[in-house]
Amino acid sequence: MVINKRLKMIFAILAVFVFLAFAKDQIIKNIITAGAKIVLGTDAKIGSFSLGIINQKVSMKDFRLYQPKGFEKGILIDIPEVTVSYDLVSVIKGKLHLPLIIVNMKEMILVKNKEGLLNVDELKVVKQAKADSENKKKEEAPKEKPKKRSKAMEMQIDKMSLNVGKVILKDFSKGDKPEVQGFDVGINNKEFKDIKSAEQLSTLIMVEAMGPAGIKGAAIYAAATVLGVGFLPVGIVAVLVSKDTVSQELDVNYEKVYESANASIQYLGEFISEVKDKGIIKCKIAKSDVNVELTKISEAKTKISISARKPIAEGLLYDIVERIK
To answer: Does the pLDDT at position 272 exceed 90?
Structure first.
């Protein structure tokens, strides 16, 4: 009888350990997405998550941050892969020490609404930084004591390596039709050191990615300063005016690509002429001349090439691909 009880206890303990082994990843995944909501004020999702205890590494796949309230539904930031090394002893002691973070961002979607508000400026981290800055400037103490925010776990990131692919800017403030532009950021393994908080980390990533889009007067730049981010992009007003060609092979039949290209042009600009049997469309988007050429590679594959001012060409290509998905 005693042996049976001991066996039952052993099996119960083993069951708990097996459960924790499978459940820990989901639990921590939920903690991270909830933390993103607290810091940024918008939803986040993680495709897959893996925590290594022995090697003290974390791997996240398909981390997506979504647009804040008041903007069209969709992705704000798409990060296919994040790799993190952590110090287990420090975590046990109550400090989140991360010797290295590698962030591979595919794209960031900046949106300016009809009222001229920029999506990243409406994130909680930016508004909170602005409020903190205004409180510091007040000479007299406020009549009501500000509510104390719960103290987060102390964080230390020794080094972050950042890769950024594209930034898409969708501007609905300039008229009836939105202006969509794309920018190849091309950041590869750029290093940043000594990051002290999740607020610094998120703001730094966004500000760095935004540089080539030429956004001026964004509140997020002021937030970066308040948060102690020792970086602001040089030449953020750069504008690419040279004509260029962007192209992509799509695993979609010719008719579907042509149909999507037509829909995107109607949405973003106006037609000038088209020769469907040759796959040539001429149009005007944001006062720029645009040439679109489709080439049938096979029954299920089509190549699309767009010649225009580079940001306009990238923006049109992005809208066409999104319609095909």
So the answer is: yes
DSSP type of residue 314: H
Verdict on whether the full-model pTM lies above 0.85 = no
210 C-beta neighbours (distance < 10 Å), count:
24
The reported pLDDT for the residue numbered 20 is 45
DSSP character string of 249-297:
EESS-HHHHHHHHHHHHHHHEEEEEEEGGGTEEEEEETTEEEEEEEEEE
Structural domain boundaries, residue 203 = 2-129+153-226
* Strands 288-298 and 280-285, bridge-based pairing: antiparallel
Sheet containing 154-171: give its strands across: 44-52, 57-66, 75-85, 95-112, 154-171, 179-195
Residue pair 229/207 in contact (Cβ under 8 Å)? The answer is yes
Q: What is the pLDDT of residues 199-234, one digit of tens each?
A: 999 999 998 898 877 776 678 887 777 777 654 443
Query: Within a domain: residue 237?
Result: no
User: Alpha-carbon Rg of the chain, whole angstroms?
Assistant: 24
